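Contributing new records

If you add data, match the layout below exactly. Sequence lines come first and carry their own label; structure lines follow with theirs. Keep one chain per record. Anything else will be rejected by the validation script.
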Amino acid sequence: MPQTTVLMAVHNDERYIGEATASILGQSERDFEFLIIDDASTDGTIGIINGFADSRIRILANRERIGLTRSLNAGWREARGQYIARMDGDDVSRPTRLEKQASFLKSHPGCGLLGTGYRTIDEHGCPLDEGRIIAADLDLKKALQVTNQFAHSSAMIPRQVIAAVGGYREVFRFAQDYDLFLRIAEKFAVALLPEILLERRLRLDALTVKYKILQDRFAKLARECARQRGKNGSDFIDPGGLEPADNDALSALGLSPSNREKRSLAAEGYFSWAMYFRHHRQGYAHRNGYVVKLLKRSLLANPRVFLAQAGGRLIRLAGRFISPGRKKPHD
């Protein structure tokens, strides 16, 4: 049996799948299976993967598209490895990633979740950002209650840990990793390797970019569920609570928008990402071009929402200089 299963769910990733696949097959660690869940791709994704002709690759094909969360649940249940290493079809793992993560988990048997440092890149591989590393378990768990500290495709988790917490919860169409990580952290130690071992690609056409607002709403739901579990020992999703197909309940929580609402959410999401990169601390020179692309996407998605967002930013900026009692810049 392989030590590790690299689990990757793909859907129409032909532009990047070759680089992603090669980065796994080129790992210094050789004892792994590469389990790929094809979520009904209609492009050349699987043809590119088959071109590698590597016996470690195993493909499971969904007859119809079922989404990332359900695909990952099918994958980890099918996995043969002791450890489950996540990977996305547009990211790049550095050559020593699997070796270093497996070595750490072997020497720390109480650890239930191990991530790594990562660098965010754009479609062309240019760096945009680097993830912040928190080393101590208690500090990391505390920070995890505020925001996700792990890049999903940098995670390595013992298979028995995923089974112990029940896997991914399928009501989470977004932030499914964050909900899983919070539940793991309640029962097991968690850790981050400080070295950058993953390049996480932020694609303009990715759903997590386009629908950042939905991602944020599901993340908020994950935190609220964690709060409920901390107080009551359970939350309102498990067991027998909110179900994945309960669209009325999801709509009431703002988690299942109509197609018309999605245009507004996309405009907000693109604008929010643009502002994040515009003001973030690490100033890569080429990032301004990426910000412009995000703003254009926001404008095209919904001009009214874009103008409202931009106008609000200008009003707040002006307020800093004209608010009563505030000294003028030259005073």
